[in-house]
Amino acid sequence: MEMVCSVVGIDTRRKRSYNEPMLLLFLCCQALNSCEQNLYETISQDWQSVPVKYFMEGVEFVSMPALNVWPPVGLYLWNKEDAARTGLAGYVGDWVTVISLKLLVNRDRPDAETDRLDSSFPSGHTTFAFTQAVVYSHYNPRLRIPMFVYAALVGFSRVYLAKHYPSDVLGGAALGIAVGLVAVKWCR
Hints:
Layout: H1 2-7, H2 19-46, H3 50-62, H4 70-77, H5 81-105, H6 124-139, H7 144-160, H8 166-186
């Protein structure tokens, strides 16, 4: 901390004012933003290849949030009513939280789309994928690793296809895990 303070010219020997911590916070945020931009550009521009792009577009298609209603329907038809009910609770919880946050944050997408309901933060695809991973691995622990690998792949595809920034994906993953845990606990 002393080193950071000396680099930005903050004298730590005297009593601090409110401006110095705010300056430090601002500089940290700028550094994180720069790191995120570099990571975004590396993944979405430097790592491009045609076969991988087609694969990622396929991942994008199968992970569309609207399609996430089908696993609970299928589970219900196979008499797995507890898993179906929890999956449906997670699905509804995802829609409520994702839309609320998109309207509240209203972050522009990397491709400059500005529709509030389709804003960048959080990544809806990633949120839904991580909720599914939590919910369905709860009912079938053998699915835990494949489900979380799938969810991570969905998140990576969103950055690779230049649809989201890395922080949108991380926020979506955290939100999806939280919604999944709440759904599992609520539906016991």
